[in-house]
C-alpha cells in the first residue's frame, strides 16, 4: 500500500534534498525525539542559524519527517512500499536509504506511542486482596463471617486509581469461574480461526 | 425517620433564630458535619464564633444534629424526608436548604457506615481490535470486564479493559485468595 503525500508535504520535505545527508540524519533523529518526548521549537532556531536558512524551513523539514514516519508506522507499510512512496520526492539513493533505515528502526516504538492516543477504558494494573473474618458485632456474638476485601488498581494513561471492593467466598468462586470461562474462550477453535486469519 | 424527643428538642433549639442567628447556624452546621467527616474537625464547644451561645445548649444541639445526620445517612434519606423532618421542628426554609447542602456533601462518608461496595457479579466481553484511528493493523484481542457492585441498596459498575496476560494475573490472584480462604477454614 503506497503512501500518498500531499503537495504541501512534498514541498516541506523538498528542503531535505538541499542539505547534507548527515544533516538529514540529524533531522531524523530530532524528529524521532520529538515524537517520543514532544517538540522543542528552540532546536529549530539553532539548526537554522548553523545552516543559514530560515527556521521555518527547518521546522517544516522536521515536521514533514515526523508526519512521514507516523503515517508509515500507522499503516505499517512494507519496505518496498515505503521506498516507492519516497521515490516521488526525487531524493538521492543515499537519502532514500537513510529514510528507510529511520523508518524501520523506529516504527515499532512509534506504533506504541500512537497506540496510547487511541480511546480506551482504564485498564487493569494489579489486584491486592485481604481476608477478613467478622467474629462478633454488637447484635450478635460468636460469628464466623469471612469476607474478602480487594483493592483493584487501574491505570488510565498516566492516571492510576485504586478501588476498594468487598466480596464473600461464594461470589469470589463465581467470579473466578466466570473469568476462567472468559479466558477459555480465547482458546476456542472459533477464536483461533479468527486470530489466525485476520492478519 | 423516627427521632427521639431529645433529638427533636435539640433540633427545635437549633431552628430558633433567637438562640442561633443565621450566621451562627451556618457555622454550627459546618462544624457539626466536619466533626463527623474528618478526624481533625474542630469542636463546637469553645468555637470562637459560637461563644455567645450557652455551652450546654450547644452540646445538646450538637448531639441532636449529629444523631439526625447519622440516621439520615443510615437510611439513605432523600431530600423530601430530610426537609419534612426539619420543617416539623420549625426550621425556616433557608436553614433547611443550608442543612441539606451540607448533608449531601457529607454523604461521602457513607463508606464509613456501609463499608466498601460489595461485588455481586462479573461480566466480560472478548474483542479483537483490528484498527483504530491512530494505528492500523493492531490485530490484538482484549477483554472488557464489568464488575457489578452494590452498596446500601445502590448498584453500580466498574468497567475496565485488560489483555489476556492481565486477566490471567487477575484470576490467579483471585484464586490465591480463594485458596487461602479454604486453608483458613480447614485449620
Automatic annotation (TrEMBL), chain A:
Residues 123-190 form the COMM domain. Coiled coil: none annotated. It holds the Pfam family COMM_domain. It comes from the Eukaryota. InterPro entries: COMM, Commd2. This is COMM domain-containing protein.
TrEMBL record, chain B:
Residues 118-185 form the COMM domain. It holds the Pfam family COMM_HN. GO terms for biological process: sodium ion transport. InterPro entries: COMM (IPR017920), COMMD3 (IPR037355). Belongs to the COMM domain-containing protein 3 family. This is COMM domain-containing protein 3. It comes from Cyprinus carpio carpio.
Amino acid at each position: 500500500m503506497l503512501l500518498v503525500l500531499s503537495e504541501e508535504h512534498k514541498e516541506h520535505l523538498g528542503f531535505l534534498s538541499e542539505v547534507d545527508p548527515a544533516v538529514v540524519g540529524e533531522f531524523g533523529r530530532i524528529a524521532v525525539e520529538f515524537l517520543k518526548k514532544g517538540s522543542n521549537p528552540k532546536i529549530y532556531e539553532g539548526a537554522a542559524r548553523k545552516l543559514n536558512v530560515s527556521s521555518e524551513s527547518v521546522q517544516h523539514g522536521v515536521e514533514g519527517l515526523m508526519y512521514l514516519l507516523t503515517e508509515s508506522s500507522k499503516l505499517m507499510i512494507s519496505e518496498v512500499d515505503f521506498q516507492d512512496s519516497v521515490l516521488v520526492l526525487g531524493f538521492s539513493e543515499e537519502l532514500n536509504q537513510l529514510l528507510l533505515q529511520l523508518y524501520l528502526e523506529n516504527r515499532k516504538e512509534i506504533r506504541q506511542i500512537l497506540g496510547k492516543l487511541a480511546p480506551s477504558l482504564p485498564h487493569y494494573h494489579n489486584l491486592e486482596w485481604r481476608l477478613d473474618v467478622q467474629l462478633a458485632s454488637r447484635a450478635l456474638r460468636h460469628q464466623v463471617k469471612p469476607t474478602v476485601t480487594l483493592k483493584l488498581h487501574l491505570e488510565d494513561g498516566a492516571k492510576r486509581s485504586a478501588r476498594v471492593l468487598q466480596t464473600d467466598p461464594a461470589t469470589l468462586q463465581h467470579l473466578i469461574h466466570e473469568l476462567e470461562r472468559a479466558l477459555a474462550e480465547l482458546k476456542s477453535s472459533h477464536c483461533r480461526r479468527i486470530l489466525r486469519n485476520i492478519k | 425517620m423516627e427521632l427521639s424527643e431529645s433529638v427533636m428538642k435539640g433540633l427545635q433549639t437549633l431552628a430558633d433564630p433567637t438562640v442561633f442567628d443565621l450566621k451562627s447556624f451556618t457555622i454550627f452546621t459546618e462544624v457539626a458535619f466536619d466533626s463527623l467527616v474528618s478526624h481533625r474537625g474542630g469542636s463546637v464547644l469553645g468555637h470562637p464564633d459560637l461563644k455567645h451561645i450557652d455551652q450546654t445548649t450547644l452540646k445538646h444541639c450538637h448531639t441532636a444534629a449529629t444523631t439526625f445526620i447519622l440516621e439520615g445517612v443510615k437510611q439513605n434519606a432523600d431530600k423530601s424526608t430530610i426537609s419534612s423532618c426539619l420543617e416539623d421542628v420549625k426550621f425556616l426554609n433557608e436553614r433547611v436548604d443550608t442543612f441539606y447542602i451540607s448533608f449531601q456533601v457529607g454523604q461521602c462518608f457513607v463508606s464509613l457506615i456501609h463499608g466498601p461496595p460489595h461485588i455481586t457479579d462479573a461480566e466480560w466481553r472478548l474483542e479483537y481490535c483490528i484498527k483504530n484511528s491512530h494505528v492500523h493493523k493492531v490485530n490484538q484481542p482484549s477483554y472488557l470486564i464489568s464488575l457489578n457492585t452494590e452498596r446500601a441498596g445502590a448498584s453500580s459498575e466498574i468497567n475496565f479493559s485488560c489483555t489476556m496476560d492481565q486477566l490471567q494475573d487477575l484470576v490467579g490472584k483471585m484464586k490465591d485468595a480463594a485458596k487461602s480462604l479454604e486453608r483458613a477454614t480447614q485449620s
